[in-house]
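Researcher: Last one for today. Full complex below.
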Amino acid sequence: MTNGQKFAASMIAALAAALHGNAIPPASEARLVSDSAAIAGGRPFSLGVLITLEEGWHTYWRNPGSSGMAPELAWTLPPGFEAGPVEWPAPSILGPPDMPDYGFERKILLMRTITPPSTLQDREIHFSVTVAWLICRDSCVPKQAELSLTLPVALTPSPEPSPWKREFDDTRARLPRRDMAWSFNASVRGKMLNLVATPPPGASLERDVPASFIPLESGLLDPGHPATRQRAGNSHTLSMRLVAPASPLPKRLSGILLLPEKGISGKGRALVVDTPLTLENETKQGERK
Amino acid sequence: MKANLTMGLMLAATLGALAAEVEIGDKAPGFTLVDIRGATNALASHAGKVVVLEWVNFGCPFVKKHYDGGAMQALQKEFTAKGVVWLTLCSSAEGKQGFLKPDEWVKAAEEKKMASTAILPDPTGQVGRLYGAKTTPHMFVIAKDGTLIYKGAIDDKPSVDPATLKDAKNYVTLAVTAALEGKKVETSATTPYGCSVKY
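Model: Here's the assembly. Have a good evening.
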């Protein structure tokens, strides 16, 4: 580099540093949205926190995986309003296989069903939520926002949908779904947790190979230890490594099974897994021979 | 040349295999790194002492939570005063977040009033991979007999909010205290939380 080039480079670096310190672009924003344009007494609707991210950034699922942090939502609802749990769409598996993160790129809507009391006195209703979320690219930035939304009380029992309705519908299509036609069996043997997933009879094995299992909570399985897979007949066994084999185990295994993109006839790409977790005694297993 | 390459690949494969196998109760794998002041530091030279390994990256908001209010430095101070060897490692590759040159490290250590026994840059990531360090912070505790007795998170509050420090259950404090008292470590493995290590 010539001196001139060096000078130019140092100026660019200084400018970048100044921008970084003072005028960092938002990279990610959050807003509180509803699928309904107005509220009617006793009629459930959905509220959601929509987080948008600039390209290259991601935020996290409820179990963030190898690193990161799940978004934290603290809701303030008016008295008499009941709220269902936050519904988490199926995440993507991001990053290298030995350090996978479970999260979302571009955008994520975290919704919950709200049921108003049967009669509403006010003309409008105010909702608010404080959101803390972490966005990461090659570095991580914590974000926080206090969001609010005021919705009018509808004059009719069936209010119009809001312009955000489509966003809610798209997200609902990505929620992990229960499929009673699948069966799951989970057991622990030594350091490994084995999940046997059996698709419904007649399901194409090629298309319905279970891709990955992700527990709802971190702490049980080591995300950086890729599952080994075995197939026996129509069943698939995923063997995954426990974080702390010596620790007491949860009574149930709760998580989602992420299926390949084109799996399960396009009916969704994640299945709810919620099955008793049993402990296999290794010596007993040996004695049975 | 070809033989060297093969050897190198075999070594890499061995390290890779080891990285997956460092488990509680195993002998903590040895390493030698040069500290920020230019002194060689070998894990083997700390035999007979409790050793804490801490992975750090000052650009990471989770690390900031533990350093900005002095919580991590307080732990370093408390335990080094009790004869514990506290090694702070940084596996950020050159050009990646958290990488510092030795003189920048000396300055950062003074500014932050770090009380680690030694600060060991690991820009090749060799030691980080050897231990399977995934996050900053990611903590390991080695007993006096050289076996690994804790690996995982620093505490049970996977958050960037400093307010969570107050009620956090600090797993490193528990593991080191148990090791010093010759007791069994109750929680020996947890899932670490933080930013990914910038290999």
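The helical segments of chain B are 2-21, 61-68, 71-81, 102-111, 126-131, 171-180. The CA atoms of residues 15 and 130 of chain B lie 6 Å apart.
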